[in-house]
Design goal:
This protein is mainly beta and 335 residues long. The chain is built from one helix and 29 strands.
Protein backbone atom coordinates (compact mmCIF):
# COMPACT_ATOMS: atom_id res chain seq x y z
CA UNK A 1 0.00 0.00 0.00
CA UNK A 2 2.87 2.34 0.62
CA UNK A 3 3.67 2.21 -3.10
CA UNK A 4 0.08 3.31 -3.71
CA UNK A 5 0.37 6.15 -1.22
CA UNK A 6 3.62 7.17 -2.88
CA UNK A 7 1.94 7.28 -6.30
CA UNK A 8 -0.85 9.41 -4.86
CA UNK A 9 1.69 11.77 -3.30
CA UNK A 10 3.59 12.02 -6.57
CA UNK A 11 0.35 12.97 -8.28
CA UNK A 12 -0.30 15.63 -5.66
CA UNK A 13 3.25 16.93 -5.95
CA UNK A 14 3.03 17.27 -9.73
CA UNK A 15 -0.52 18.66 -9.72
CA UNK A 16 0.25 21.24 -7.05
CA UNK A 17 3.69 22.21 -8.33
CA UNK A 18 3.59 26.01 -8.53
CA UNK A 19 6.82 27.94 -9.13
CA UNK A 20 7.87 30.05 -6.16
CA UNK A 21 10.01 33.16 -6.10
CA UNK A 22 11.73 32.20 -2.85
CA UNK A 23 14.82 30.01 -2.53
CA UNK A 24 13.95 26.33 -2.78
CA UNK A 25 16.21 25.24 0.06
CA UNK A 26 15.02 27.85 2.55
CA UNK A 27 13.23 26.59 5.65
CA UNK A 28 10.52 28.51 7.47
CA UNK A 29 9.04 27.91 10.90
CA UNK A 30 5.69 28.92 12.36
CA UNK A 31 5.11 28.68 16.10
CA UNK A 32 2.13 26.63 17.26
CA UNK A 33 0.61 25.85 20.63
CA UNK A 34 3.60 23.78 21.73
CA UNK A 35 4.58 22.86 18.15
CA UNK A 36 6.65 24.42 15.39
CA UNK A 37 6.38 23.60 11.70
CA UNK A 38 9.29 23.71 9.27
CA UNK A 39 9.17 23.89 5.49
CA UNK A 40 11.95 21.58 4.30
CA UNK A 41 12.13 23.15 0.85
CA UNK A 42 12.90 21.25 -2.37
CA UNK A 43 15.77 20.12 -4.57
CA UNK A 44 15.16 22.94 -7.01
CA UNK A 45 11.69 22.08 -8.21
CA UNK A 46 8.41 23.38 -6.86
CA UNK A 47 7.30 20.44 -4.70
CA UNK A 48 8.48 17.76 -2.27
CA UNK A 49 7.21 15.29 0.32
CA UNK A 50 8.81 13.58 3.33
CA UNK A 51 8.43 9.83 3.90
CA UNK A 52 10.18 9.02 7.18
CA UNK A 53 12.13 10.44 10.13
CA UNK A 54 14.49 8.75 12.59
CA UNK A 55 15.07 9.60 16.24
CA UNK A 56 18.05 11.78 15.32
CA UNK A 57 15.76 14.04 13.29
CA UNK A 58 17.10 12.93 9.90
CA UNK A 59 14.36 12.95 7.27
CA UNK A 60 14.01 11.24 3.89
CA UNK A 61 11.57 11.64 1.03
CA UNK A 62 11.47 12.81 -2.56
CA UNK A 63 11.47 16.14 -4.36
CA UNK A 64 10.96 17.46 -7.84
CA UNK A 65 14.09 18.82 -9.50
CA UNK A 66 14.26 22.05 -11.47
CA UNK A 67 11.81 21.80 -14.36
CA UNK A 68 9.31 19.75 -12.32
CA UNK A 69 9.70 16.63 -14.47
CA UNK A 70 11.95 14.33 -12.41
CA UNK A 71 11.86 13.48 -8.70
CA UNK A 72 14.91 12.44 -6.68
CA UNK A 73 15.25 10.86 -3.24
CA UNK A 74 16.50 13.23 -0.57
CA UNK A 75 18.02 13.22 2.90
CA UNK A 76 17.30 16.25 5.08
CA UNK A 77 19.97 16.57 7.76
CA UNK A 78 21.64 19.48 9.51
CA UNK A 79 19.17 21.93 8.01
CA UNK A 80 20.00 20.94 4.42
CA UNK A 81 18.15 18.89 1.81
CA UNK A 82 20.62 16.58 0.07
CA UNK A 83 20.03 14.83 -3.27
CA UNK A 84 20.96 11.17 -2.71
CA UNK A 85 21.50 10.52 -6.43
CA UNK A 86 22.65 13.78 -8.05
CA UNK A 87 24.31 11.94 -10.93
CA UNK A 88 21.24 9.82 -11.82
CA UNK A 89 19.85 12.42 -14.23
CA UNK A 90 16.27 11.71 -15.30
CA UNK A 91 16.04 8.45 -13.35
CA UNK A 92 13.26 8.64 -10.77
CA UNK A 93 14.15 7.83 -7.17
CA UNK A 94 12.24 7.73 -3.87
CA UNK A 95 13.48 7.35 -0.30
CA UNK A 96 10.91 5.46 1.78
CA UNK A 97 12.49 4.85 5.18
CA UNK A 98 15.52 5.62 7.36
CA UNK A 99 16.72 3.85 10.51
CA UNK A 100 18.40 5.39 13.54
CA UNK A 101 21.95 4.65 12.28
CA UNK A 102 21.06 6.64 9.15
CA UNK A 103 20.70 3.84 6.60
CA UNK A 104 18.11 4.59 3.89
CA UNK A 105 15.95 2.43 1.64
CA UNK A 106 13.78 3.17 -1.36
CA UNK A 107 13.79 2.78 -5.11
CA UNK A 108 16.10 4.07 -7.83
CA UNK A 109 14.60 3.55 -11.25
CA UNK A 110 13.08 0.07 -11.23
CA UNK A 111 15.23 -1.33 -8.39
CA UNK A 112 15.21 -1.26 -4.61
CA UNK A 113 18.24 0.24 -2.92
CA UNK A 114 19.93 0.21 0.48
CA UNK A 115 21.94 3.41 0.97
CA UNK A 116 24.67 3.43 3.62
CA UNK A 117 27.93 5.29 4.04
CA UNK A 118 27.33 7.18 0.80
CA UNK A 119 26.89 4.05 -1.32
CA UNK A 120 23.72 2.45 -2.72
CA UNK A 121 23.36 -1.33 -2.99
CA UNK A 122 20.75 -2.76 -5.36
CA UNK A 123 18.58 -5.44 -3.73
CA UNK A 124 15.62 -7.63 -4.71
CA UNK A 125 14.66 -11.14 -5.76
CA UNK A 126 16.53 -11.20 -9.06
CA UNK A 127 13.75 -9.89 -11.29
CA UNK A 128 13.60 -6.68 -13.27
CA UNK A 129 11.69 -4.69 -10.67
CA UNK A 130 11.85 -4.14 -6.91
CA UNK A 131 11.24 -1.52 -4.22
CA UNK A 132 12.22 -1.31 -0.54
CA UNK A 133 9.81 0.16 2.02
CA UNK A 134 11.11 -0.50 5.52
CA UNK A 135 14.38 -0.90 7.44
CA UNK A 136 15.09 -1.60 11.12
CA UNK A 137 18.06 -0.54 13.23
CA UNK A 138 19.90 -3.79 12.39
CA UNK A 139 19.90 -2.85 8.71
CA UNK A 140 17.34 -5.52 7.79
CA UNK A 141 15.26 -4.39 4.80
CA UNK A 142 11.82 -5.38 3.51
CA UNK A 143 10.01 -4.66 0.27
CA UNK A 144 8.71 -6.35 -2.86
CA UNK A 145 10.41 -7.64 -5.98
CA UNK A 146 9.59 -9.40 -9.21
CA UNK A 147 10.74 -12.96 -9.69
CA UNK A 148 13.34 -13.85 -12.35
CA UNK A 149 11.80 -14.18 -15.78
CA UNK A 150 8.37 -12.86 -14.76
CA UNK A 151 6.71 -9.46 -15.09
CA UNK A 152 3.60 -10.53 -13.16
CA UNK A 153 4.92 -12.35 -10.11
CA UNK A 154 5.98 -10.06 -7.25
CA UNK A 155 6.91 -11.37 -3.80
CA UNK A 156 7.60 -9.81 -0.43
CA UNK A 157 11.26 -10.06 0.53
CA UNK A 158 13.54 -9.64 3.53
CA UNK A 159 17.15 -8.60 2.95
CA UNK A 160 19.61 -9.28 5.80
CA UNK A 161 23.26 -10.23 6.16
CA UNK A 162 23.70 -9.79 2.41
CA UNK A 163 21.05 -12.40 1.60
CA UNK A 164 17.52 -11.96 0.22
CA UNK A 165 14.68 -14.16 1.53
CA UNK A 166 11.40 -14.68 -0.34
CA UNK A 167 8.77 -14.41 2.41
CA UNK A 168 5.98 -15.99 0.34
CA UNK A 169 7.71 -18.67 -1.79
CA UNK A 170 4.58 -20.87 -2.01
CA UNK A 171 2.10 -18.08 -2.77
CA UNK A 172 -0.44 -19.47 -5.30
CA UNK A 173 -0.64 -17.68 -8.62
CA UNK A 174 -3.56 -16.75 -10.81
CA UNK A 175 -4.40 -15.18 -14.13
CA UNK A 176 -2.91 -11.92 -12.95
CA UNK A 177 0.16 -13.49 -11.36
CA UNK A 178 1.33 -13.74 -7.78
CA UNK A 179 1.61 -10.71 -5.54
CA UNK A 180 2.78 -9.96 -2.01
CA UNK A 181 4.48 -7.00 -0.40
CA UNK A 182 6.35 -6.45 2.87
CA UNK A 183 5.71 -2.97 4.23
CA UNK A 184 7.73 -2.70 7.44
CA UNK A 185 10.02 -4.50 9.90
CA UNK A 186 10.72 -3.80 13.57
CA UNK A 187 13.87 -4.40 15.62
CA UNK A 188 12.61 -7.86 16.65
CA UNK A 189 12.58 -8.90 13.00
CA UNK A 190 8.79 -8.98 12.77
CA UNK A 191 7.53 -8.11 9.29
CA UNK A 192 4.08 -6.88 8.25
CA UNK A 193 2.67 -6.87 4.74
CA UNK A 194 -0.03 -8.41 2.65
CA UNK A 195 -0.59 -11.09 0.02
CA UNK A 196 -2.96 -10.99 -2.92
CA UNK A 197 -2.87 -13.92 -5.35
CA UNK A 198 -5.04 -12.03 -7.83
CA UNK A 199 -3.75 -8.55 -6.94
CA UNK A 200 -7.31 -7.59 -5.93
CA UNK A 201 -8.07 -8.71 -2.36
CA UNK A 202 -5.13 -8.08 -0.04
CA UNK A 203 -4.79 -10.28 3.04
CA UNK A 204 -2.60 -8.82 5.84
CA UNK A 205 0.16 -10.99 7.29
CA UNK A 206 2.76 -11.04 10.05
CA UNK A 207 6.05 -12.82 9.33
CA UNK A 208 8.03 -13.88 12.38
CA UNK A 209 10.94 -16.32 12.62
CA UNK A 210 10.11 -17.94 9.29
CA UNK A 211 6.38 -18.32 9.95
CA UNK A 212 3.68 -16.43 8.08
CA UNK A 213 0.40 -15.86 9.98
CA UNK A 214 -2.78 -13.89 9.32
CA UNK A 215 -2.87 -10.44 10.87
CA UNK A 216 -6.28 -9.58 12.43
CA UNK A 217 -6.48 -6.06 11.05
CA UNK A 218 -9.93 -6.12 9.40
CA UNK A 219 -12.78 -4.39 11.27
CA UNK A 220 -15.95 -6.48 11.77
CA UNK A 221 -17.96 -4.76 9.00
CA UNK A 222 -15.05 -4.43 6.56
CA UNK A 223 -13.68 -6.74 3.89
CA UNK A 224 -9.95 -6.11 3.46
CA UNK A 225 -7.10 -4.47 5.37
CA UNK A 226 -3.54 -3.34 4.68
CA UNK A 227 -0.85 -2.93 7.37
CA UNK A 228 1.62 -0.09 6.91
CA UNK A 229 3.89 0.09 9.99
CA UNK A 230 4.89 -1.98 13.01
CA UNK A 231 6.72 -0.68 16.10
CA UNK A 232 9.13 -2.51 18.39
CA UNK A 233 6.29 -3.61 20.69
CA UNK A 234 4.51 -5.31 17.79
CA UNK A 235 1.76 -2.71 17.48
CA UNK A 236 0.55 -2.32 13.89
CA UNK A 237 -1.26 0.47 12.04
CA UNK A 238 -2.88 0.63 8.64
CA UNK A 239 -6.29 0.76 7.04
CA UNK A 240 -9.43 -1.37 6.90
CA UNK A 241 -11.84 -1.05 3.98
CA UNK A 242 -15.46 -1.96 3.35
CA UNK A 243 -16.62 -2.83 -0.16
CA UNK A 244 -20.09 -1.50 0.65
CA UNK A 245 -19.03 2.15 0.89
CA UNK A 246 -15.31 2.02 -0.07
CA UNK A 247 -14.50 4.13 2.97
CA UNK A 248 -11.06 3.77 4.53
CA UNK A 249 -10.91 3.25 8.29
CA UNK A 250 -7.67 3.92 10.17
CA UNK A 251 -6.83 1.07 12.54
CA UNK A 252 -4.38 0.26 15.34
CA UNK A 253 -3.69 -3.31 16.49
CA UNK A 254 -2.33 -3.12 20.04
CA UNK A 255 -1.85 -6.06 22.42
CA UNK A 256 -4.26 -8.19 20.43
CA UNK A 257 -6.97 -5.52 20.41
CA UNK A 258 -8.06 -3.89 17.14
CA UNK A 259 -8.89 -0.20 17.66
CA UNK A 260 -10.81 1.87 15.10
CA UNK A 261 -9.27 5.36 14.84
CA UNK A 262 -11.89 6.92 12.59
CA UNK A 263 -12.07 7.56 8.84
CA UNK A 264 -8.84 7.63 6.88
CA UNK A 265 -5.51 5.81 6.89
CA UNK A 266 -3.10 5.36 9.82
CA UNK A 267 0.26 5.76 8.11
CA UNK A 268 2.74 5.31 10.98
CA UNK A 269 3.33 5.03 14.71
CA UNK A 270 6.24 5.35 17.12
CA UNK A 271 7.39 3.23 20.05
CA UNK A 272 5.35 5.37 22.46
CA UNK A 273 2.12 4.34 20.74
CA UNK A 274 1.49 7.71 19.06
CA UNK A 275 -0.15 7.27 15.65
CA UNK A 276 -0.34 9.61 12.66
CA UNK A 277 -2.52 9.35 9.60
CA UNK A 278 -4.66 11.13 7.06
CA UNK A 279 -8.45 11.48 7.02
CA UNK A 280 -11.16 13.44 5.22
CA UNK A 281 -10.26 16.58 7.17
CA UNK A 282 -6.50 16.24 6.70
CA UNK A 283 -3.80 14.79 8.91
CA UNK A 284 -4.32 13.57 12.45
CA UNK A 285 -2.38 12.54 15.55
CA UNK A 286 -3.81 9.81 17.79
CA UNK A 287 -2.50 9.55 21.33
CA UNK A 288 -3.88 8.39 24.68
CA UNK A 289 -7.21 7.50 23.09
CA UNK A 290 -7.74 10.91 21.52
CA UNK A 291 -7.63 11.82 17.81
CA UNK A 292 -6.27 15.33 17.21
CA UNK A 293 -6.49 17.01 13.81
CA UNK A 294 -3.08 18.38 12.86
CA UNK A 295 -4.70 21.58 11.64
CA UNK A 296 -5.59 22.35 15.27
CA UNK A 297 -1.88 22.38 16.13
CA UNK A 298 -1.20 25.13 13.58
CA UNK A 299 -1.41 28.78 14.64
CA UNK A 300 -4.20 31.05 13.48
CA UNK A 301 -3.37 32.47 10.09
CA UNK A 302 -0.89 29.72 9.22
CA UNK A 303 -0.29 29.32 5.48
CA UNK A 304 -0.08 25.50 5.83
CA UNK A 305 -3.11 23.43 4.77
CA UNK A 306 -3.91 19.82 3.83
CA UNK A 307 -1.16 18.22 5.93
CA UNK A 308 -0.59 14.54 5.04
CA UNK A 309 1.68 12.97 7.70
CA UNK A 310 3.81 10.00 6.71
CA UNK A 311 5.82 9.20 9.85
CA UNK A 312 6.42 10.05 13.52
CA UNK A 313 9.55 9.38 15.56
CA UNK A 314 9.89 8.63 19.29
CA UNK A 315 10.36 12.34 20.02
CA UNK A 316 6.91 13.02 18.58
CA UNK A 317 8.25 14.79 15.49
CA UNK A 318 5.96 14.34 12.47
CA UNK A 319 6.89 14.53 8.79
CA UNK A 320 4.94 14.41 5.56
CA UNK A 321 3.71 16.76 2.87
CA UNK A 322 1.31 19.69 2.82
CA UNK A 323 0.31 22.77 0.92
CA UNK A 324 2.34 25.85 1.87
CA UNK A 325 1.96 29.15 0.04
CA UNK A 326 0.28 27.34 -2.84
CA UNK A 327 2.85 24.54 -3.30
CA UNK A 328 3.10 20.99 -1.97
CA UNK A 329 6.16 20.84 0.31
CA UNK A 330 7.73 18.43 2.78
CA UNK A 331 7.20 19.52 6.38
CA UNK A 332 8.53 18.79 9.86
CA UNK A 333 6.11 19.32 12.76
CA UNK A 334 7.96 19.34 16.09
CA UNK A 335 6.57 19.43 19.66
Amino acid sequence: MRWFLRIVLVGLVVALAIPLATARTATTKAKTGGYSITDLGTLGGSASSASAINNRGQIVGFSLLSGDVVSHAFLFSGGQMIDLFPASGNTLSFANDINNPGQIVGSLGSHAFLYRRGQATQIGLGGANSAAFGINDKGEVVGEGSLPGSDLDFHAFLYRHGQTIDLTPTLPGGEFGQFSIAQDINNRGEVVGYTSPFQLFPQPFLWRKGTLTDLPLILPDDDIAIPLRINNSGEVVGLSLSFSDFEDHAVLLSRGRLIALGPGVATSLNNRGQVVGTGPDGGFLYQKGVRIELSSLLPAGSSWTSLSPADINDRGQIVGGGIHNGAFHAFLLSP
